[in-house]
Task: inverse folding
């Protein structure tokens, strides 16, 4: 996959999506090229936020707690992608599609990239900026699912594709919210 084509994928139903459907990489390759590095990026940005701007984000939180939370966040993300892949596969099968796990895993790995990238905003000590970037990442992730799932999973019926995309996004957004809460709660001692 050409990373320069990634922004187009947010707004297009075809192009790179059609190429990926025809040449879906193995799960192990997707893991090492997408899931692992982007999960690591977001975990590192949590640690960076704690070390550089911890006094701004949570003044009473010691630095070592940020490191623990970042490590846990990393592990949970690595577990979440395969779970979301299984969920995508199950929802698509309920609608009559027959995606294999590779296609479902690729969709589960591609969809959160904007959210992972939004964690770069943690390098700036601004809750409003981080929240705006997080919401933009969430919107871009929704668009990736909406535009990508029909091509990746081979769904030709528009209403079925929309239904699958909306269900996957709703569950994915809930999972992401729980991950964010899991990060925030230990840092601010809720």
Result:
């Amino acid at each position: 996959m050409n990373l320069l084509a990634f922004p187009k994928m947010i707004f297009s139903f075809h192009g790179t999506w059609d190429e990926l459907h025809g040449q879906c990489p193995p799960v192990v390759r997707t893991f090492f090229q997408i899931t692992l590095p982007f999960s690591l990026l977001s975990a590192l940005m949590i640690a960076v936020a704690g070390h550089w701007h911890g006094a701004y984000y949570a003044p009473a939180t010691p630095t070592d707690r940020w490191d623990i939370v970042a490590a846990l966040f990393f592990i949970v993300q690595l577990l979440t992608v395969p779970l979301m892949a299984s969920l995508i596969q199950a929802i698509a099968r309920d609608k009559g599609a027959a995606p294999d796990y590779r296609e479902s895993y690729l969709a589960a790995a591609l969809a959160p990239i904007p959210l992972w990238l939004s964690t770069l905003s943690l390098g700036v000590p601004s809750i409003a900026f981080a929240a705006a970037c997080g919401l933009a990442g969430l919107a871009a992730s929704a668009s990736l699912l909406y535009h990508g799932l029909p091509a990746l999973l081979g769904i030709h019926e528009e209403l079925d594709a929309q239904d699958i995309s909306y269900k996957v996004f709703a569950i994915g957004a809930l999972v992401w919210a729980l991950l964010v809460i899991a990060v925030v709660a230990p840092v601010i001692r809720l």
Observations:
- The chain is about 80% helix and 0% strand.
- The helical segments are 6-9, 16-22, 27-57, 63-94, 101-110, 113-118, 127-153, 158-188.
- Residues 28-188 form one domain.
- The radius of gyration is 17 Å.
